[in-house]
Design brief:
By secondary structure, the protein is mainly alpha-helical. The chain is 45% helix and 0% strand.
């Protein structure tokens, strides 16, 4: 099915390097190669469901291998539920139409990277990982004395002019005042 927007608009948002990295990660985990291009291989949701079953066994009970559009969309929605259960926030998920109608493949790639980040939070998962680990909180505790000590200091942002003046600066034409008119 052709996308509703022109290909040049969609292609501008996609990052072939990220797609390649995501594809290699999925192939490494599944132990099988993509049968077609990135978007066409993922379109029916079968590989995505297999991925989630490898990461979290038994998450998706039935993967629809054959059938019409409804069965393929069911695979994608099962995948999305499994991804949320794995710990990926809902804001990082693509819409089923983004993949099935190939409207926003960049968002699909972003979701795959979000799954890779979520893998770091599961100690039972031994790798391979995709992308950098998520940021962790680094909470600091300051005493009241330390907080008060900072109030008396002048920050470097305040700076100093070290005796500089505006004498001799001329920006633009001078103001002309004509008397008598």
């Amino acid at each position: 099915m052709p996308p509703s927007r022109p290909l040049w608009q969609i292609a501008g948002k996609r990052d072939p390097e990220q797609e390649k990295e995501a594809q290699e990660w999925i192939e490494l985990i599944l132990g099988e190669k993509f049968p077609d291009t990135f978007e066409l291989s993922l379109r029916n949701g079968v590989l995505l469901c297999k991925l989630m079953n490898k990461l979290n066994p038994g998450t998706i009970q039935k993967i629809n291998i054959s059938g019409g559009d409804y069965k393929m969309m069911d695979n994608i929605s099962q995948f999305q539920r499994a991804v949320q259960h794995w710990g990926v926030p809902e804001v990082d998920l693509f819409n089923a139409n983004d993949l099935y109608d190939q409207k926003n493949i960049a968002l699909v790639t972003q979701t795959i990277f979000a799954i890779g980040r979520a893998c770091y939070k599961h100690p039972e998962f031994k790798g391979p990982y995709l992308g950098p680990p998520p940021a962790t909180e680094n909470r600091r505790e300051f005493t009241e004395e330390q907080l008060r000590a900072g109030e008396g200091m002048i920050g470097l942002q305040a700076g100093t002019n070290k005796g500089a003046t505006q004498a001799g600066q001329n920006f633009g034409a001078g103001r002309k005042i004509i008397l008598g008119k």
